[in-house]
Structures are given as C-alpha cells and as structure tokens.
Amino acid sequence: MFKAFFTVLNKKQDFIDQVYHAISLIPPGRVTTYGAIARALGAARSSRLVGTACIMAQDSGLPIHRVVNRLGMLTGKQHYATDTKMQQLLEAEGIQIRDDRVIDFDKLFWDPLMD
DNA sequence: GAATTGACGTTCT
DNA sequence: AAGAACGCCAATT
Fold this sequence. Notes:
Shape: globular
Helix content: 40-55%
Number of helices: 5
Mean pLDDT: 90
C-alpha cells in the first residue's frame, strides 16, 4: 500500500520526464503543440503543465523551440534571451514564420501519437 | 505557506 | 458565435 502511495507521488515527476521524452522525439523542421504532447501522455487536460515543463527544460538542450500553441504561435519566445531567438532557431530548420506564427502550421504539425 | 501566475486548451453559457 | 469558466499544477511571490 505504501508502494501505491509513492507511485502517485512520483507520477508528477514522471509526467515531466515524459514531456521531455516527447519533445526529444519531435523531428527537425516540424512542430507540435502543448496540447498534443499532453494528449500523447494521456493527460489531455494538462497542456498547461507542458508549458511549465518547457520552462524547466530550457537548459536541457531539448528542441523546445519546436513546441508552439495550438494556433501555431510562438508564445514562448519571450522566455528566450532575445525576442527573435526562437524564430531564428525555427527558421534555421526551414520553418517560415510571420507575425510570430508558423506558416503552413497545419502541414508542419507533428503529432507524437503518430510517430 | 497562502495566493497568484502562467510557453494551454476544452467546455460551458 | 463570442466570451467566460474552469481543469491542471509547478513555480513564483
């Protein structure tokens, strides 16, 4: 019974780790969304926590710049050193951006569930 | 340690 | 169809 208790406690941290893993799977030149990652992890209503995980992952070397919101907007760009840093990272992979929005987002969108 | 704040997205009105 | 409410919960204040 203690085991079950700790399982619940550890679940939170596991979720964060799984977010990291999902992000590491995003192919270069593609993008995904916070909600898609949350769904892929079976926590459809925790998309917000995915964003929190991204903040924690900033120093982890993961390609978190490939994660945008469901409209394809670069909502996380303000957390980079420069205003244009996130956009530059994406453009370096061939992703075009206009007004903080990914062009052809529906075509570049990559769902972790369909790897 | 309580209250607020978000790199969000769905549901209810 | 537009807007408010709400679920989620780590991090910050």
